[in-house]
Amino acid sequence: MAEAKQGGIQAIFKLSARPQCETVQKHDQTIDLEPESLSTRVYIAECTNCQLVLKKKAANVLIEKCQDLVLTMSAELVSGTLEVLKSSKISLKIGPNVKIPTVTADSTSGLQIVLLENEQQVESLYFHESSDLTIKVQGDGVEEKEYAANPPADAAAHRQFVAHWVTNEGGVQLKTEKVVREGVFPYAEEELKEAQEKDRQNADKAFKVLEKEFMKSRKK
After folding, report:
1. Among 58, 66, 92, 147, which lies 20 to 30 A Cα-Cα from 44?
2. Residue closest to 131 by CA, chosen among 110, 146, 153
């Protein structure tokens, strides 16, 4: 019992001792961020009018209470997630050959994500109580496009939303939906409905197969 307790304490200590690269209360500066290791968390807080560049791969990035800040991502994140919290006028530039699958924004206004290669560099933008969110595609030899992440008109403001890409006859479009949860996992509302309908159809097929086999066995 004592050994198990000691092991648990050691695990908690290791988690709390996770390395962190902090940039706090910087103003009117240009800063290169070079995390020590892949497990390093990059934390940017209370900065104004700064230009930052992530030069090395990190675990994740959190931007909190910042204003007029530009972060250029020249490296990817192990977790694949970049978070923006309680900030305004934030520009995230995703460099060529870099993918950040998930960006989240909470209590944030004026967030622009600039993709310097194509739409596939960011898969989803989750947001809550945030406004003026855009995704822009631009770069050398790239057709410039801009998409707005607007919640559905009939949705309550306190809901969480997700903006993600859909492909149709008109090309690639940014679609915003309400987030619903199945267990602990978040889904776009339409995505969950499609998954549930697919499960229902598969269940119907399985039932019909079993029913057919049962009828065959009765005839023997």
Report:
1. 147
2. 110
Q: Quick check: 162 and 141 in contact, CB under 8 A?
A: no
What is the domain extent for residue 191? 181-219
The number of residues making up the chain comes to 220
Residue 39 and residue 124 in one domain = yes
Per-position DSSP letters for 112-151, written without gaps between them:
EEEESS-GGG--EEEEES-EEEEEEE--TT---EEEE---
CATH of residue 25's domain is: 2.160.20.70
103/164 same-domain check = yes
- What order of strands is seen across the sheet that includes strand 48-54? 30-33, 48-54, 67-73, 88-94, 109-115, 131-137, 145-148
pTM (predicted TM-score) = 0.76
Specify whether 103 is located in the same domain as 141: yes
The span from the CA of 145 to the CA of 114, in Å, is: 10
Is 48 part of a structural domain of the chain?
A: yes
CA 63, CA 83: separation in Å to the nearest integer?
6
What is the rounded CA–CA span in Å between residue 115 and residue 121? Answer: 7
